[in-house]
Amino acid sequence: MPVSKAKAKVVAKPVVKKVVVKPVASKKAAVKVISEVKTAKGFLKMDVYDLKGKVVEKANLPKEIFGAKVNKVLMAQAVRIYLANQRRGTVSTKSRGEVQGSSAKIYRQKGTGRARHGSKRAPIFVHGGLVFGPRPRDYSMDFPKKMRRAALFSSLTLKNENGEIKIVKGFEKIEPKTKLAADVFKKLGFEEKKRKVLLVTSASVNDLANVYRAAGNLKGVELISANMLNTYQVLDNRAIILMKDAIDSIKNTFLKEKKN
């Protein structure tokens, strides 16, 4: 049937907007733009505080470390292995063959009306040997590097997601005085009563003696160098304070291990 002009549907043509793409000046500039986008995607922006507790700049945290997948089972395993490796296993007891005392029969076998005994060093007597007592043993367990590193990244990511990580600039220049360090922690929002903080330094005690002297005696403050960081100490503290230079130390230590 022929369609009348009144009933005919008018189909409008879609309007296509032309997008003008400005050419990049050179290939080097194009590569630079692409690399900047990649580095921006691979890092997390975070505030950096000074010793007065004020935000002074932003820092880049690598997503591989502070934005990893949280594996609670792996973290629990890392904590258990860490605590097991802290056990010395040197406790020991003496058996009846090791205690001091006579080995002679203490009284005759028959006619006394008492039980038969052959030695005063038997476990039934005072100062006798111990049966099945603890002996020196090795409690240590192995933990593969990849699993240990993944557990550490999980713990740091968990702390970061909970807002329990702060980055501090200028801590390496502090004078070796406990009073000054206590004042810094107070300005950062860590009161003495509820304080349980892990301060991650960029170097060892030999290179940052003033920092370790200033904060080493503070109650509720634990110090550790970045290359010795582990899952247990990260989870055992309520908050983590990173010295700004410690970020590079963490990257150089643990991301290099991953590449190898």
Number of strands: 6
Tell me roughly what share of residues is in helical segments: 25-40%
The fold-level CATH name of the largest domain is Ribosomal Protein L4, Chain: A
Largest sheet: 6 strands, mixed
Protein described:
20% of the residues are buried. The protein has 260 residues and is of the alpha/beta class. The model is unreliable at 1-12 and 14-40 (pLDDT under 50). The chain has a 6-stranded mixed sheet, sandwiched between helices. It folds into 2 domains: 43-87 and 142-259, Ribosomal protein L4/L1 (Ribosomal Protein L4, Chain: A, 3-Layer(aba) Sandwich), CATH 3.40.1370.10; 90-138, no CATH class. The chain contains 8 helices and 6 strands, in the order αββαααβαβαβαβα. 35% of the residues lie in helices and 13% in strands. The protein is elongated.
Please summarize what this structure is.
The protein has 260 residues and is of the alpha/beta class. It has helices at 27-41, 63-66, 72-86, 145-161, 178-187, 209-215, 231-236, 244-259, and strands at residues 43-49, 55-62, 165-168, 197-201, 221-225, 239-243.
